[in-house]
Amino acid sequence: MENVLRPLIVVGGSVALTLLMGWATDLLLHKANGTHPETPLWGLLRRGRIPYQFLLCAALLRGSYDQAEILQAHRTGVGRALTLVLIGAAAWLVVRIAAAVVETTYTRYARAHHDPARVRRVRTQVTLIMRVVAAVVGVVAVAAMLLTFPAMRAAGASLLASAGILGIVAGVAAQSTLSNLFAGLQIAFGDMVRLGDTVVVDGEWGTVDEITLTFLTVRTWDERRITMPVSYFTSKPFENWSRGGAQMTGIVYFHVDHSAPVQAMRDRLRDILRACPAWDGRAYGLQVTDSTPTTMEVRALVTAKDADDIWTVRVTVREQMIRWLTEEHPYALPRVNTADAVRPPGVDGRLRHDPAVRRAHEPPRAGRG
What we know:
The structure is a single chain. By secondary structure, the chain is of the alpha+beta class. α5 packs antiparallel against α8 (175-190) and α10 crosses α11. The longest helix is centred in the first third of the chain and has 38 residues, at 75-112. It is built from 13 helices and eight strands. The strands form two sheets. The chain has a five-stranded antiparallel beta sheet with strand order 4-3-2-1-5. It has a three-stranded antiparallel beta sheet with strand order 6-8-7, with helices on one face.
């Protein structure tokens, strides 16, 4: 009877105590979250209740397994399995706690600062820091698990003896990966590009959607995702439209006839912008920037608060200005001139007195049949 009750008491007590402590801890965190709603720390810490319960249960079972006296033939294997679960649960819990602390710090920073560029920079750094912390904790946990096996401990000495050679070989083999890793850290703390920045890469316009230690994802305007190594942004030039502020200036070009009413186009541009919600009201202008034998180039300059709005302002100005010219000033549209050439001044007067000039400007006569 004792052989049956002892395992039930040990295992059942460990599980019951784990559930009780997990419930009590979650209840305390819930009350703390309600008492201090200004900080999300307590609510975020509740996400770690599952690894917390795994850690408690594994620790209790590992400590009381010898008293249970079950599966004595597999005592070593069961003890090692419980140790592995204990290490894995501890690493999981550490990552969850670190994520809660970092997320709380970022939330407070975002509430205190209203500059979107600075907030995106901190968000990028926080994301990469969490990835580094998770990677380090994972590597340490795996190493600790491997060290629980005697064969791995015995192999440790030989591995350390050849660490120099292995380091050189690993460095050569993982040169690309390591370069991307350091490039990711450089991007995070060098403030080159941030989450949410509007960039132009290889002629593609989009928004930075994800940054990891090895790659970066750009979401284009048509919902495509362009993934490229982060080392690209440290070795090649690219356009960052959000760098130094989100405000932008846009240009719209028109090719019109030389008789186009430029002043009326300036007034029409002003009316179009006043009716466009995307225009930020900072500046506008319209100038003649070039001229060709057949057309005149007119440049309209507009402003907006970010890249999305500048696109809206540009297409709105282009569409409404062309429609206004078509309806009100159709003569101002570019056209191909097919009219007869105009005679130079004074030619008609010289035709009567100068036979050479008269013959040069007379129309050709039809040949005789």
